[in-house]
Amino acid sequence: MKSVYEMAYIQILPAIRKEIANRLRAYGMKETEIAKRLNITQAAVSKYLKEKQEVNEKLAEKLREHKAAIEEYVEGLLGNKSPALCALCQKIGGFSCQLSKAQA
Description:
- With 104 residues, the protein is an all-alpha fold.
- It has one domain.
- It has helices at residues 4-26, 31-38, 42-50, 57-65, 67-78, 85-93, 98-103.
- Helix 1 packs antiparallel against helix 2 (31-38) and helix 1 crosses helix 6 (85-93).
- The longest helix has 23 residues, at 4-26.
- The protein starts with a helix and ends with a helix.
- The relative contact order is 0.16.
């Protein structure tokens, strides 16, 4: 059985990044800038924007529930801020991350 951290890395984080990348693209941001803001490669951004990622229904519902939090995160990125992705992942994933507690 996978740990909660593996599940976050494998399922939750990519779904959040895909959602954020699509929203930033809708604001006219280029892939290279999205990559820079999300601290990922341009190739990863391209993959998020092009692929139809299969998201289980429970996770899709969580993404819908936290639409405002995702948009707030996107607005922070648009304002050249560096909001904490870890907090957003925790809200959507419904767990507490030891790494984020150590960074607080």
